[in-house]
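hey so u asked for the seq, here:
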Amino acid sequence: MKRSISVIVPTTVSLERAPLLWRALRSLQEHQHHVIVPIVVVNGTRYLPEVLESLRLRQDIRCLYLEEGNHTEARLAGRKAVDTEFFAFLGDDDEYLPGAAPRQLDAVARDPSVDALITNGYRNESGQDVLQLADVPNVQRDPLRALMDSSWLHSAGALFRSERISSDYLQGPPAMELTYMALKLALTRTLKFLDVPTYRWYRGTPESLSATKEYRGGEPEAISEMLKLNPPAAIKRRLRRKYAASLHCLSDMERQDGSYWAAWRYHLRSLASPYGFPYLPYTRHLLRPQAVGDALRRIAALN
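ran it, C-alpha cells below
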C-alpha cells in the first residue's frame, strides 16, 4: 500500500453543505495534496446535481455515491475503498490545518507499534478557536478514564493504520458513534496521543446530525452497546451512571417540549436503572396537572 492517507469525507452536498465541503477539500489539498487521497462519499438524495457531477469529474479525488442518506454507511463505504497505508476522516464542515498530514505521518513512522494516532485540534465557536483537548498527557496515561470525562476522539482528529483498524471498528450505534469507537480502540489497540492541533471543528453548522432530536434519542442505546464491549468494572459503573443521566436528560427535554407522555417514559426508565435514584426528586415536575393529564390521555388511548 502507498504511504499516504485516504481521508474519507461523508457528505450530503445539499444546498447548505456544499459550500462547507469545498472548504474541507481545499484544506486537504493545500500544502499536503502529495500525501492525501480524498474519498468523498455522497449519500442521500438531497445532493445538488451539478456539485455531484463536478466531484465525479475531479481527477484529484475519489467520489462515491450511496442512495441511502446514512452517515455511518457512508463512512463504511469510504473505509472499504481505502488502498493506502493509513486512513482518516474529515467532516464536510471541518478542515485540516496546514501541515497536518505530514505531522501525523511523521509521528507514526517513528513508532510502528501505534495502531491509531489521536491528535489535538481546535473547536471553533463564534469565530474563536479553543483547544479541544486541554490535557493530552493525562489522556495518554489513562484513555479509558479520560473518555468517561469527555470524548477525545473527533472525526478529524485521528489517523488509523489501515491493516489494523478494520471496518468492524466503524460498525457501532448511530448515536455517540465516535465515543463507541474510542472505547473499542482503547480496549483493543495501541493508541498514541499527539498534543499538536491538526484540525478545526466548526460548531453550529447547518444540518448538524448530532444536534437532532433523533440523535439525542439514541444515546441511551449507544451507552448500552458500550457496556457490551465489557470494559473494566470502574468504566462500567461510569457508563451506567451516564445511561441513567442520558434518560433523565431526554425526559427533561421532552417535558420542556410539552411531550409529557414521552417525558414520563424516559423518567421511569431512568428510575429503573441502577443509578437512577438521584433523579427521583425530578418526579415532582411530572406530577403537575398538565403532565398528569397528558399521561392519562395517552393511557386511555391505548385501552
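The first strand starts at residue 2 and ends at 11. The mean pLDDT is 92.
lmk if thats what u needed
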